Amino acid sequence: MEYIGEIAALATAFFWSFTSLFFTAASKRIGSYWLNKIRIILAVILLGSTLFITTGRLLPDGIPAESYYYLILSGVIGLSLADTLLFRSFVMMGPRISLLVFSVSPIIAAITAWIMLGEKLGIMAILGIIVTLSGVAWVTSERSYNNGNNTSGYKISGKAILLTIGAAAGQAIGLVLAKAGMGDTLDALPATFIRMAAAAVGIWMYSIIRGHIWELPTKLKDVKALYLSLGGAVCGPFLGVWLSLAAVKHTEAGIAMAIMATVPVMVIPLVILIHKEKVSYRAVIGAVVTVGGVALLFVS
Hints:
The protein is mostly helical. The protein is about 85% helix and about 0% strand.
């Protein structure tokens, strides 16, 4: 199927836009620290159940040891470490500014894929990435500075910016490692399960070492937060991450990540419908520019 990678990347951004709303509401109730741990366990259960129902087993036979190495490393770097850094950045300087800085991830992905996999982007693809990220940056910065409720209490600092760049690099490198682990034979679903399971082990081992595990029963008492976490887990680390691996499997990593970076633009109609937010002409123009950039990526 033509453009399957680009379509999967668009679907990823679509599902991640819903994830941001679910997880924002859940984190207000139980905090981003516990949300991160609970949603990854839910994702492992969802992925494992899907694999078992569709194939009768958790993993197919004959996965090379090298694939396990790349995918486990991808899960630890791209999900455990990157998400922990990004959530910390959200707390320090807010999601809007964090996502603005985080938009460098497609560039890091393109460079990493060029070094590791020999992927090269043409002029149209590079132009499409630049236009897409420009539109995303325009929308994100506008919503950061014009909506006082989103920036109140946050402080931009060098440490927060470094954390966000680290998160962007972690996610980009993680996806490239996942692409290397899948190769030409392994499907995206079992690859996602291996990544997510490795990330879950990493996150929960860290929690146990830090002695935070005893807080879990208190967090599980908030039933509404659990439902919100489940909704976010379905859209994000289950469907979203699964589709993101399908995207990088079938197109260049830089192109896939640039399309997936359009989440702040896709969120706009959702916040209009759900939260009744007003959107400025500047945000609309930024959205149009982003769509133009994505169109260039499809024809590159």
